[in-house]
């Protein structure tokens, strides 16, 4: 339920949203002095990403760039002429490598001959692509068949990830962001805070003096960030990284205005961190409760995500399901067995030891 407080801010699910409405697609809204919120369209059900434009001297620093689509280029042209008024982009910062964030970073950097700032982990993953090929590589098909899908369905997943919008434009170089790196933009000091689990080395930007946190996809209101295991690294445990990152973010004061990459800016960071932990704990509990008998990842996916539409949804949901399964296996509460080319998960017998994390083969 949404209510309005005395200042006109919207209260919803324990979070306070100072702007009841987002700017229209391609429009901007000033959320702090020298910080503009730009709404960029996306061609999906999640139909937008928020970019932040930071005023600096005689130009602008942009945080995230949008996806590699014709619409994105059109919006940028509009911003260059109507918002930047001919002033240049001085630097591009990408919170992480995902195609809606870093999709046109290479183009912006080339057009304005300005540097791109990213963490090393994200810059490297920007260049890891599912190979463009008529048929999936064996490891791709193997991953989905072991989860319970057919080879035909695996081929459909492969086709879905070949969509050219998911391929960011190439970037030739970068300047490295690390945990604690400082960027002084428009006289305001931003400190880099690294998070993991949604992507390998995600950068958030925190201004302690002004109480602002550009959170990227590390903290989103209302929707949860994907925390998934993909065919690239079937044994990954991103949920452990994600939950650890949430704990580290509690060092940021609850009073900050959170500027996320999707939905709307909000207050009550700590409440949201609690909600995110509860969301994943709920999934973990449901998974364990359903593993009294051996279950495939496909069966568990239907338990955690009962309503899905289309292969892309399934791809994301399966990744999330496996993230929870791998987490529980690492904790020693779930075990997995392979029979007939299918992996099944069941509760570990009581007193069973957690597997040795050094044992990878
Ligand atoms: Zn992302």
Write up this protein.
This protein is an alpha+beta fold and 361 residues long. It has a single domain, classed as Ribonuclease Z/Hydroxyacylglutathione hydrolase-like (Metallo-beta-lactamase, Chain A), CATH 3.60.15.10. The protein contains ten helices and 18 strands. It has helices spanning 70-82, 99-102, 105-112, 120-125, 138-147, 151-161, 238-249, 269-289, 297-304, 311-331, and strands at residues 2-4, 10-12, 15-17, 28-32, 35-41, 48-56, 59-63, 89-93, 116-119, 175-177, 182-185, 188-195, 202-207, 212-216, 257-260, 295-296, 334-339, 342-347. The strands form four sheets. The protein has a seven-stranded mixed sheet with strand order 4-5-6-7-8-9-10. A five-stranded mixed sheet has the order 11-12-13-14-15. Bound molecules: zinc ion.
Summarize the structure.
By secondary structure, the protein is of the alpha+beta class.
Task: Give the topology.
Blueprint: E1 2-4, E2 10-12, E3 15-17, E4 28-32, E5 35-41, E6 48-56, E7 59-63, H1 70-82, E8 89-93, H2 99-102, H3 105-112, E9 116-119, H4 120-125, H5 138-147, H6 151-161, E10 175-177, E11 182-185, E12 188-195, E13 202-207, E14 212-216, H7 238-249, E15 257-260, H8 269-289, E16 295-296, H9 297-304, H10 311-331, E17 334-339, E18 342-347
Parallel strand pairs: 7-8, 8-9, 9-10, 14-15
Antiparallel strand pairs: 1-2, 2-3, 4-5, 5-6, 6-7, 11-12, 12-13, 13-14, 16-18, 17-18
Helix pairs in contact: 5-6, 7-8, 9-10
The structure holds zinc ion (ZN).
Can you give keywords for this protein?
alpha+beta; globular; 5-stranded mixed sheet; 361 residues; single chain
